[in-house]
Design a protein that fits this description.
Length: 125
């Protein structure tokens, strides 16, 4: 599947949308936007520079970094260091196994929904 849209409805009534495309012609696009009653939080794409030019012709900015290792090297190193620190200091990790399992369960439900053409409830953990 090159492009997918997943609609989520949470137990508390909140709504979520995940859009995924493997064919973004302008680069490896990964953004997160959360809109709420009290504000919005966003994380934008990493680009080689933060420069943006706006003029009568439009907007010019660098394409997102292409490869995930380029984009997340600092994050991967920080994650590994936090994991090592948790082991050395015998304290809990910042991210649990459940935190990693939830996106897998969402993906499995989305795959089943694609197959059946019907909404699928995500198994709770």
């Amino acid at each position: 599947i090159d492009t997918a849209v997943i609609s989520l409805k949470f137990a508390n009534g909140a709504l979520g949308i995940i859009e995924n495309s493997r064919k973004a012609v302008y680069g490896y696009d990964q953004r997160v936007e959360v809109f709420g009653a009290k504000g919005t939080a966003m994380a934008d794409n990493n680009t080689p520079t933060s420069m943006i030019v706006l003029n009568e012709s439009g907007t010019i900015r660098d394409k997102p970094l292409y490869f995930f290792l380029e984009r997340y090297k600092t994050a991967f190193v920080a994650e590994m260091q936090a994991f090592v620190d948790a082991i050395r200091e015998d304290k809990p990790t910042l991210v649990s196994g459940k935190d990693g399992l939830v996106p897998v369960l969402i993906a499995m439900a989305a795959k089943e929904s694609l197959k059946t053409g019907k909404p699928v409830q995500v198994v709770s953990v």
